[in-house]
Design a protein that fits this description.
Blueprint (H helix, E strand, L loop, with lengths): L5 E3 L10 E4 L2 E10 L25 E6 L2 H9 L30 H26 L6 H26 L13 H4 L7 E5 L11 E3 L4 E3 L4 E3 L4 E3 L4 H31 L10 H35 L3 H6 L11 H9 L18 E3 L2 E3 L4
Parallel strand pairs: 4-5
Antiparallel strand pairs: 1-3, 2-3, 3-4, 6-7, 8-9, 10-11
Helix pairs in contact: 2-3, 2-6, 3-5, 5-6, 6-8
């Protein structure tokens, strides 16, 4: 049995509307029937625009889901020269959104990502050259805190790097091929992204910045210049967690240092003048307070999403999944951090490996 062609469906009902609303996004749906018979029928039966409709006709029903960004571009911009949808799998040509293996070529996202690294460097400078290296405290105190601070910084920056340069779970381009469609039973409705020309897995969404469909996409974060999805959600949670911890730790060291300086009438803090020290500490305090609050909220939000088995996009659209009733919190954590519970969960250098079952869907981590 071979798959040979797609038959467009023409409805006899003039009131049939090919534009519908899915969740909170307005999308345009094109319907086709992929017939697997050797005898091609000349006409197809009408199919309702409902997303749950099935058909008794032989073949697979293909529905092209047009992302919101592409929908409005087609509606208000008739010039197709700006559209660039490459078919290469490596994503290294000029028209692709990425350079190297995975790095989104978004100027705003790249600037936010590098700014995050700069803020880490500034905090390191103040902690080392303003608080610890000057002989304001004992040598043992300085060595221990230098070790702890740099350990936390390495974990936080490494988590940020892995989140930024890891494939978040992009669906392969142009995988809606006849060979792949033959795997589905007759009457199955298959959703295909009109931009990626890919079969959309359950709970996947198209990102207008990454220009790819992302498996179990939570959101696109400008601070990591990447989507947070199935493959890199672990790294993103570790980044927010370690950043929150190191920010609180910096505030503790800052408080100890300013107390020591004031109690000694600045005699113990002679490496920098009092005005310069105050300026350094004020900027560090503002950075640490802002980062600690923001990352604490993000960490809590991510863990709550795992607990409820709901992504950020699904929460925004009001979509709910029923899998939480039959799975524990630990089982949901295993889907994100890996099936082996242990210290590897807290290690940004280890991938969340092993095969996990989620919602009758086999989930693999293919970074």
């Amino acid at each position: 049995m071979s798959l040979k062609k797609f038959i467009p469906i023409h409805s006899n009902d003039d009131n049939t509307n090919d534009e519908m609303e899915v969740g909170s996004s307005s999308v345009k749906v094109h319907r086709y029937i992929c017939d697997t018979n050797t005898d091609w029928s000349t006409q197809s039966t009408n199919i309702s625009s409902s997303t749950t409709t099935t058909t008794d006709e032989p073949g697979v029903t293909i529905k092209d889901v047009v992302p919101r960004s592409m929908y409005y571009h087609e509606q208000y911009n008739n010039d197709d020269d700006d559209d660039c949808l490459c078919s290469c799998a490596c994503c290294r040509c000029e028209c692709c959104p990425t350079v190297s293996d995975w790095c989104i070529r978004d100027p705003y996202g790249l600037s936010c990502g590098f700014t995050t690294w700069f803020l880490f460097i500034y905090a390191q400078f103040v902690i080392i050259f303003v608080i610890l290296i000057p002989k304001s405290h004992s040598i043992i105190f300085n060595i221990i805190n230098l070790f702890i601070f740099h350990l936390l910084e390495i974990l936080a920056v490494s988590s940020h790097y892995r989140t930024m340069f890891s494939n978040p779970g992009a669906v392969p381009l142009n995988d809606a091929t006849p060979e792949n469609l033959l795997k589905y039973e007759n009457g199955t409705i298959v959703y295909r992204c009109a931009m990626c020309k890919s079969i959309k897995p359950p709970r996947s969404h198209h990102c207008s910045v990454c220009k790819r469909c992302i498996k179990r996409m939570d959101h696109h974060c400008v601070f990591v210049n990447n989507c947070v999805g199935q493959n890199n959600q672990k790294y993103f949670i570790l980044f927010t967690f370690y950043t929150c911890v190191i920010s609180i730790y910096a505030l503790i060291l800052l408080g100890i240092h300013i107390t020591t300086c004031i109690n000694s009438d600045w005699n113990a803090c002679t490496s920098w003048s009092p005005p310069a020290t105050i300026i350094f500490l004020i900027f560090l305090a503002f950075e640490a307070i802002s980062f600690s609050i923001f990352t604490a909220i993000m960490t809590g939000t991510q863990l709550y999403s795992i607990y409820t088995d709901t992504t950020g996009i699904e929460s925004f659209k009001g979509e709910k999944t029923g899998s939480r009733r039959s799975s524990s919190f630990i089982s949901s954590l295993k889907i994100v951090f890996g099936s082996q519970v242990g210290l590897a969960w807290f290690n940004p250098f280890s991938k969340p490996v092993n095969l996990i079952t989620q919602n009758d869907e086999r989930v693999t981590f293919d970074v």
